[in-house]
Amino acid sequence: MRKEQGMLHIHKLHQKYGPIVQVSPDEISITDLPIVKKIYMNDNYPKEFFNCESNTTRVLNIKKGFYSQFGNFSNRNLFSTGDSKEHINKKKPLQKIYSKTFVLKHSGFLTQKINKLVNKLITLKNKNVDVYSLFGSLAMDVVTGYEFGFENSSDFLTIQDFQEKNLEYKNEIFDSFRDSSSLWFWVCMVPQLYSYVAIWSGKNKTMKKGRSWIWNKINEVAACMSIEDLKKQESTMTVIFDKYNRDLARIGSELADHTLAGADTTQTTLTYIMWQLSRPANATWKKKLHNEILETFPTNKKTNYVIIDDYNKLDKEMPVMNAIIKENFRLHAAIPGSERRFVPNGDGLKVAGYNIKPGTVVSTQPYSLHRADVFGEEIDAFKPERWLQEINETENEYKKRLQEFERHMMTFGQGNRMCLGMHLAVTEIKACVASIFGHSELISYHISPEWCPLVDTTNKAVQMGYGTKFVDKTFDRLAYHRLSDVEKMRMADSYTTRPLYDECWMTI
After folding, report:
1. Is residue 204 part of a domain?
2. CB-hemisphere CA count at 13 Å for 103?
3. For 493, phi and psi rounded to 5 degrees?
4. Which of 138, 165, 190, 219 has its CA 20 to 30 A from that of 274?
5. Which structural domain range is residue 59 located in?
6. Is residue 432 part of a domain?
């Protein structure tokens, strides 16, 4: 696991033994679709197990699971709530903020932020830019608008420049959040050692920067909260402010979780899209995408900015762009790790002739579902054509094939626990891709030769984690410089994924 290859290990077990694999004495990994549907959708299995006496409601003990570790300011939040009914009650008032209707209603806010990003890229023409940090700033500036109120969003896109002469971009707030993410293995797998590892690595100190930034923002916004703001209820904070009895620690736990989750996942997704389309093997896809955008949206003749005049077109009129994004979701899911649940009290779960007793952990990892045979050949290769209609394929056959694809997709989870911010994330990603790749001055970007002189010209698949040794991630800058782009973009496995070295440099 500490080789950052836990997902790959479980995937290989499934390849060898089939869709039901026991990965530990009390955990079963499952990729059988009917059972997956039962766990996550039909029966909504809980994240915690309340062991009760037979025929009574008296709780003997509680198995909390790793989700209980995902709290902030000594409080749990929606994501870390274990009981399914309690989760539903907490989620209901927040659904409006993240609905597709609400996101499209505030598309002007998205456009404003994305145009700032495009402007930043234009001003950095012919320079090296860390797009991983750039997209992290966009995602943070967007999600904080939904969390704290649109007028209170962060403005990292304005205050940062995302380029350094030695290609070592640093930002203490982002670095703090990354340190937190890098310890998620210990949070998820060995929580009893988490605090010791945080102290031993020194990350307990750096992580305070990010927490302090969020805590200060919460207090700043709370101090200015008006009755009119609370009536409008157009941010997570205004929705829960009174529901959480104005308890800033409880409110802060929710806001911090939404902010970090919304920023990390969108940042990773956009980075891998931009990297994949920078590869020589995918040059044709970049050109197809550019042409489709120009055919769908008008552009400002003076600035060449894409004018997204109707956000619905992003879903309905852009098959090439959606194929590229779907394939990226499949290969580079931001959260591809095991989504653990407990078999609830009752008769247990019947699987392949066996009865799995209540209290056992059952899990599915999107990483494996996304690599099912249904997706065709070269399963680890980036091939957007999988999602497009084939020459001799009828419309009905194509729809059936896509339905089967979608059944195996779990990028945003499934069922009641699926990602609350899915509509915001997808809309933001699509609008950002359209705005960047439709701009004639940005389409010629490429992998920075200073960052990576060795660019793989094939469609070689990206691997997961460090490699074969316990630790063979190099920290020697010269050795790192000699790695190919495929090696530099290996996916780190700490429940969520990201580029292994937390960077991706492009020459704009």
Report:
1. yes
2. 21
3. -120, 90
4. 165
5. 6-507
6. yes
Cβ atoms of 277 and 332 within 8 Å: the answer is no
* Per-residue model confidence (pLDDT) at position 470: 44
Q: Do 238 and 149 meet the contact criterion of CB atoms below 8 Å apart?
A: yes
Strand partners, 72: 75
Q: What pLDDT shows up at residue 242? A: 92
Tokens 């999602």 belong to residue: 387
Q: Which of 114, 70, 87 is nearest to 424 (CA)?
A: 114
- 143: domain CATH number? 1.10.630.10
CA distance 393 to 390: 5
**Which pairing describes strands 27-30 and 361-364: parallel, antiparallel, or unpaired?**
parallel
Question: Which residues of the chain are modeled with pLDDT < 50?
Answer: 1, 470-471
Burial 143-152 (b: 16+ CB within 10 A, else e): bbbbbbbbeb
**Exposed/middle/buried for 8, CB within 10 Å: 0-12, 13-18, 19+?**
middle
**Distance (Å, rounded) from C-alpha 52 to C-alpha 23?**
26
Domain membership flag for residue 1: no
DSSP 3-state of 420? coil
Distance (Å, whole) CA 423 – CA 107:
12
CB within 8 Å of 21: residues ≥ 6 apart? 10, 13, 14, 28, 29, 30
Q: Name the domain count of the chain.
A: 1
The DSSP string of 370-418 is TT-GGG-SSTTS--GGGGS--TT--HHHHHHHHHHHHHT--TT-SGGGS
Taking the C-alpha atoms of residue 154 and residue 139, their distance in angstroms, rounded to an integer, is 10
Looking up tokens 């006496």 gives 53
CA distance 461 to 486: 8
Decide: residue 309, CB within 10 A, 0-12 exposed, 13-18 middle, 19+ buried: exposed
Would you say residue 232 lies in a domain? yes
pLDDT of residue 184: 56
Ramachandran sector of residue 63 (left: φ over 0; alpha: ψ -120 to 50; beta: rest): beta
